[in-house]
Amino acid sequence: MADISMAALTKVYPGGVRALDGIDLTIADGEFFALLGPSGCGKTTLLRTLAGLETASSGSVGIGGRDVTALPPGRRDVAMVFQDYALFPHMSVSDNIAYPLRIQKVPGATRREKAAQTAAELGLTDYLDRRPGQLSGGQQQRVALARAMACHPQVFLFDEPLSNLDARMRLEARTFLKRLQRELGVTTVFVTHDQAEALALADRIAVMESGRIRQLGTPAEVFRYPANTFVASFIGSTPMNLLDGQVAGGRIDVAGALLPVPEGLEEGLAEGEKLVYGIRPEYLGLAEGPAEGALRGAVRVVENLGSAQLVTLEGESGFVQAVVDEDRRLTPGEIGHAVPRRDRALLYRDGELLNRA
Ligand code: ATP
């Protein structure tokens, strides 16, 4: 069992930056867990504190039931893969993979055998004698993974391991990583600022802001029910429309458009109270003409997404984006009527979600 537990984990850097602010979190054995958030929110600090590369200011870290808060990195049984892979340029692929085993004083022949075995699992057999500089980015990334795997750690810690790959390689490496993690069943913590990557890979995601966790949940939960407007604006490949509105006669008045109240929220809204109406562009359809409960606006920008189009309308409520069918003809300046899907609409009061999953 290699679950990870953090209790009231806090890290204040010299100079006073509170990079972690009382993190309470348990990651299950075998889980693929993503830490997601904007630059500077504390993701890397959290990962480095799990690895033992940073010392916590207060609070504790447990791995596999052991309190490791005071243990150095080498005694935590974790392997970390860095963004830049941190391979040794002067060593062969084989020696790079075997390096942690050398540190553990595993005899030479066993080391080479284990390195060759791990390399074979990752499709690196043909490259064992090459140096990292003679490999593509994707191959270097596999060498870094092989090095992490070679000593069979209890926990993998990944700090944006895909960010140096081009878009296509990145997708391939993502699928590969997910399959590998499933096969090995090693508890994995993955840091990324790419929400699509977190949604695609993780069993659960923690969305962080300013050293705190703003939401913890499965990708489906975090996507469908962002707990607050911070998470809502962060998750999703096209940002959610967050529109200022007001309760009016059993509807939400957004700049004159009377939108339906999301299911289950009809009770408990006070007439006239101010709320934020959240609807993803994917759940906003363009009607053929004027329609009841539609947001009205002039077409300003049309972006081709391949199999669909992203349309930006400008109306009384500001800018609203909708994803529409690839065949729909749209001309800049024409008036569009965007109708929200009621079963996907969200309401936020003081920035916090009112819908219940
Ligand atoms: P990024 O995505 O940009 O890597 P991050 O979410 O990983 O960001 P951290 O690197 O953990 O964020 O940084 C969290 C905060 O702590 C930031 O405000 C950062 O400036 C600060 N910080 C990080 N390392 C140090 C350090 N060694 N000394 C002082 N402050 C630091």
Automatic annotation (TrEMBL):
> What Gene Ontology cellular component terms go with this record?
ATP-binding cassette (ABC) transporter complex, substrate-binding subunit-containing
InterPro entries assigned? AAA+_ATPase, ABC_transporter-like_ATP-bd, ABC_transporter-like_CS, ABC_transpr_MalK/UgpC-like, Mo/tungstate-bd_C_term_dom, NA-bd_OB-fold, OB_MalK-like, P-loop_NTPase
Q: Which domain of life is it from?
A: Bacteria
Enumerate the GO terms in the molecular function aspect: ABC-type transporter activity; ATP binding; ATP hydrolysis activity
Q: Where are the transmembrane segments?
A: none
Looking at the record, the residues that make up the ABC transporter domain are: 4-235
Query: Which Pfam family is an annotated match for this chain, by its short name?
Result: OB_MalK
Q: Which UniProt keywords apply?
A: ATP-binding, Cell membrane, Membrane, Nucleotide-binding, Translocase, Transport
Specify the protein name: ABC transporter ATP-binding protein
